[in-house]
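Sample 1 of the test manifest.
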Amino acid sequence: MALVASRKTLIGGMTVIGLVGLWFVLTTFTGLVTSARFPSPAEFWLSLKQINGRGYAGSTLASHAFHSVKLVLMGFTVAVLTGVPLGLWMGWNRRVEAFINPVFLIIRPIPPLAWIPLAILWLGLGDAAKILVIWFSAFVPSVINAFTGVRNIDKPILEAARMLGTPRWRMVREVILPASLPMIFTGLRLSLQASWTTLVAAELVGALVGVGFVLNMAQQDIYPGMILVGMVTVGVLGWATTLLLARVERRALAWNVAARD
Amino acid sequence: MGSISFRNVDKVFGQGTGGVKALDDINLDIADKEFVAIVGPSGCGKTTCLRMVAGFEAASAGSVQVNGRPVTAPGPDRAVVFQQFALFPWKTVRENIELGLRNKNLPVGERNDLVASALKLMNLETHVDAFPHQLSGGMQQRVAIARAYVLDPEVLLMDEPFGALDAQTRVVMQEELVRLARHNPRTVLFITHAVEEAVYLADRVAIMTRRPGRIKEVLDIKAVRERENWDSHARIEDVMDLESFVHLRTHIWKSLREEKGFKDV
């Protein structure tokens, strides 16, 4: 097991080193790709130093990143806290499903990004508009997966719980919720991804701080080095939050065989 | 007290012309502390009989009663042991067994005593804190049986409980169930398609026809068992070797074979 894991890390590390090497070759060494199109490693490094020191687009990378993470986590949390209970409820109660599903079917095909103009119109360029848009986009996967989670519960498990005389709320807390938890976490992963996508898009369109704003400014300044800094930052932050979520999931699903590999 | 009675019970799945008649005029009385096994060809509706007593299905006609009261919903007075165990994977062995007692709002002390004795009864003491997926199939079914027994139910409903176990584990579990049933007798409705198992375990065996299922014949095993003193043999293979056992088994086999739906047993 440990051997396989370390080998995986090794291969992954080699891929990254290979890509960075290729980057060097294409830009610095051969000049096949000019710095007007894509920054060289040195230019990337200079941009990184600049935004960390003097700052760029109004503040340092850390405060841009902090702001973006804060919004993602807020939007994501609101989406999960509203989406998962609604999904569970719809899964459990056919009447609730019948009631809400039509609304869902109409709203669902609208890409979350299409809400951005309306959100900005309502709430301006501040945080509230972005949280609202993140909420829209992260809400859907949370609902759908929680719903599917409930619907896929093994029937004998529910029958066993009923046979044991389990009262309603204990049924929700101790049977339906844990039984749906693997699917719920699938939904959370998708929601988190959607949160980042939406946030960056929203910040690109209208913001005064944040990683998406850095990208937007760098584009207007025709500054490839800074564009890459913004992109890498989004990648790293997305990866880190996903990792955090995976850790929570592993802990919450310690009983689940399927979650172990 | 725990008697079960089926009175002219029909069960139709689906509606109108698309409906399929699964059970046809089932009549069966199971006395308090009696162990009755139902055998029948696949799809004959024997599991449906059990599910109606459990309260998971309603009869289309006739009535299913426990202690003279019609069954309306599932409840802890009718504990079920499922073929696929149906344990809660996120609960430990103890928590699985404990849930029914918590639902009864028993005080903690009493609850712990009951759980402890159930664990002891099923030889699970060393696995108290294990999760189901860490246990073998046989162990998981022990937990499910303990979960049912600890409720002290009026009737115990076992739906092919050993069907998912390998042959050797199955034999051990059958012997243990006999030990349990003799030591602490209660009303049991046991569904199986394994003829030997039925003859070995039950006081009476009801044979069903193929779909739509009817009760074709009910055999009194207990009379033979007591007359031939089967209980003096500790091992299942010794009992199965007895002429009286073989005779009953063959009788049931022949009866089942007459049914066209007979394939696997």
